[in-house]
Design a protein that fits this description.
With 140 residues, this protein is mainly α. The protein has one domain. Helix content is 74%, strand content 0%. It contains 7 helices and no strands. α1 crosses α7, α2 crosses α3 and α3 runs antiparallel to α4. The longest helix is centred in the C-terminal third of the chain and has 25 residues. It is elongated.
Length: 140
């Protein structure tokens, strides 16, 4: 059985997309800094705004997803909440500007990994090998 790279890349893309959508949508619903992050993402970070848009509906429907996403976002970005409260207009810059530990670095990997994995999935699907038939049988 041959490895289907587009399926492997696609599974990792969906994993990264799910984590990003969950955490950024929950972060946008955070009582203290959520409004500033949502407004800043809308104007400055189109990828983060896309994640917020994709995750808003599932997070709103399931409170368990809200609490899981909030726990993930708090674990990665809680050190930057005070700086975001001080300067809400630069919320996305403050969220991504400093390295705030290994979990924040992992979230940055997921953040940039999802678009990269989408491109790799599409490229692997377009370049997949297909069966070739050199001689067709004649039906009588």
């Amino acid at each position: 059985m041959r490895m289907r790279w587009y399926a492997v890349f696609g599974i990792f893309f969906l994993l990264c997309l799910g984590i990003d959508a969950l955490s950024f949508a929950a972060l946008a619903r955070e009582p203290g800094v959520g409004r500033a992050i949502a407004l800043s993402a809308e104007t400055e970070a189109p990828i983060a705004h896309t994640y917020i848009s994709l995750g808003t509906l599932p997070v709103a429907w399931a409170p368990a997803l809200q609490s899981v996403g909030q726990a993930l976002a708090d674990a990665a970005f809680s050190d930057s909440y005070a700086a975001i409260n001080a300067r809400p207009e630069a919320a996305m810059d403050l969220l991504f500007s400093e390295s705030r530990g290994p979990l924040c670095a992992l979230f940055m990997l997921f953040y940039w990994g999802a678009p990269l994995l989408l491109v790799l999935t599409l490229a692997a699907w377009l370049l997949r090998s297909r069966h070739t038939h050199l001689i067709k049988s004649v039906r009588r």
